[in-house]
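Protein chain data
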Amino acid sequence: MLIKHLIWYSFLCLITVRPFINSWAYPDIDLIWNLLCSLNTLVLLFTEKNAKLKPSIMIPLVLFLLAMTVSGYRSLDPSSALKQIYEFFNAILIFWLTVNLDDKKKKVLIFTIFIPSILIAIYALDQYFIGFKYALNRLKLVSPDYQFAQRTILSKRVFATFLSPDMLAGYLILLIPINIALLIQNFKNKKRAILLSIYLFMLCITLILTKSLGGWISLLICLALFTYLLSKTKRFYSYDYLILSIILAAVSIIILTSRWQFFFDLKNPHNSIVQRYYCYKTSLEIISNHPLGGIGLGNFRHYYQRYKPDGALFAGFSHNSYLQLWAEAGFFGIAFFFWFVIVVIYDSSKRLKKNKNVIYLGLCIASISFLIHNTLDSTFFLAEVSYLWWIILGFTN
């Protein structure tokens, strides 16, 4: 029993530190984390009573992992592909464990995923007001030709511990809907409401400072969906409308005032909208040439250099996880993934009709926010963000 508790707390510690480990900057530490997480998760699964998944969920997951493995054999970078497959395997284990946790452990795990986000928000604010000045001077000494990093720092787009501001935004929009749900649930408790409001304010300010158009748009869509679905439940009060209306209005104003020029400055080669257009166009061309088998896991960045049109900059990701998944893993890879997602959403919608709890609704919206954001970015392929989605998805099942 003592060993089981120690392993559980070890798992919680691993979940706490995950957002601080940049998989691109610290690949060795990332590998150690994955190994430790797999070990802890497997032991916890073996010690849980009746730890199982429904066949309707297990079958598409196994087929998806099999498709990723087959795709990995065709990779131009076998070690990178193997690492990606292992991360998918690890994520599925985390999802499996979360599904089988009892309610008490699920509450502890929810609290655990919020702990690092507070520190990340503080770090991002420090980065914006103080850190960028020193980071730019350091960059000039270490890597003066790294233009992407220079543009990010000069534009003062915070990224904290993540690869880019867009990745940080993808992480934040997973937490904001849950935080809003907790605030609505605890609105009559003044102390909790104040603490949750401060926390929500910090997350939203950090999201604003990422200046991520994709993050803002994804959050706006999800909050609109949140408002609509919450209106269908019995526990919807006037202050619920007030909280959501203020956030919706704020996000809309930010999009219109802060990034409006990007919708018109289409001749600027560094315009993110223009570069995403190139990524999507190139991804579709790759898919048209390799529709069934794909080009192999982890090969997108190599093929992009061959297919990209004039004016397109280097891209390691397609900025659309579904296009990249289809391009790399082929039709069967994307089909098995969508099969899994559709089954999970269908099951969650049935539970939502029976379960009028606003926290459960917040978890469902958070998982959907990830899916929406991945039409504009590729956080699905980054373990430091996607692990959180698999956990949240486990909460909803």
